[in-house]
Design brief:
The protein has 10 helices and no strands. About 5% of the residues have low confidence. The protein is mainly alpha-helical. Helix 1 crosses helix 2. The protein is extended, with a radius of gyration of 33 Å. 63% of the residues lie in helices and 0% in strands. The longest helix has 36 residues.
């Protein structure tokens, strides 16, 4: 196989390099002075151990994939894509978009994460300031990848836990979930607990998601039609002045 040939070539090249290094070391040694005692012969070194079977297999796999890449036959490695609508089906599309807007509002660094200082600012703006340890505890409770900051998925997880009753009433995350109702008041529900319970009940059927998606598409069509009407009116007005 081509991968085995590449492995053999690589091993031969390593052996040649080791032999060249030994020759250079022998050339670099000074010649003994006349009458001096001959230098003692170096002690024989134990033979190098052959690579283990696992190392050979790993090297062969790497060389094989490199060969496939060069020939254009390698399959692209898929990255897991986060879809909030499928991972959090209990939330409506409108709610997820509102929470996404809130997330981006406090993502001052525009890096797709809310770090500790940005969370501190968020809690202060919501009227529930937290201590440094309190902020770290909030992040730790939903930090699935242990990077010390909140991704959008972890941000949604806060509200998922609040809806499921998995947060302590006095915790900072529960305060965030309750106070965030101000930003999603257009849903027309009062009270954080009633809000989440109502959304879970309203989205019990799969047709709800399709209806919301269709409503968004119709709204975009109406906006596009309005834009075309405005452009046509502008062209008529421009033509009237040019005549």
């Amino acid at each position: 196989m081509a991968s085995e040939e590449l492995a053999l070539k690589l091993q031969r090249r390593l052996q040649r390099e080791e032999e060249e290094e030994e020759e250079e070391e022998e050339k670099g040694q000074p010649e003994p002075a006349p009458g001096a005692a001959p230098a003692p012969e170096p002690e024989p070194q134990p033979p190098a151990r052959a690579p283990t079977a696992s190392a050979d297999a790993e090297l062969s796999a790497q060389l094989s994939r490199r060969l496939d890449i060069n020939e254009g036959a390698a399959r692209p490695r898929r990255c897991r894509v986060f879809n909030p609508y499928t991972e959090f089906p209990e939330f409506s599309r409108r709610l997820i978009k509102d929470l996404e807007s809130m997330f981006k509002l406090y993502d001052a660094g525009r890096d797709g994460f809310i770090d500790l200082m940005e969370l501190k600012l968020m809690m202060e703006k919501l009227g529930a300031p937290q201590t440094h340890l309190g902020l770290k505890s909030m992040i730790k409770e939903v930090d699935e990848d242990f990077d010390g900051k909140l991704s959008f998925r972890e941000f949604l997880l806060i509200f998922h836990k609040a809806a499921a009753g998995e947060l302590q009433e006095e915790s900072g995350l529960m305060a965030l979930a309750k106070l965030s109702e101000i930003d999603v008041a257009l849903e027309g529900v009062r009270g954080a607990k009633d809000f989440f319970e109502a959304k879970v009940q309203a989205l019990s059927s799969a047709s709800k998601f399709e209806a919301e998606l269709k409503a968004e598409q119709e709204e975009r069509k109406r906006e596009e039609e309005k834009r075309r009407i405005r452009q046509a009116a502008f062209r008529e007005l421009k033509a009237a002045f040019s005549t």
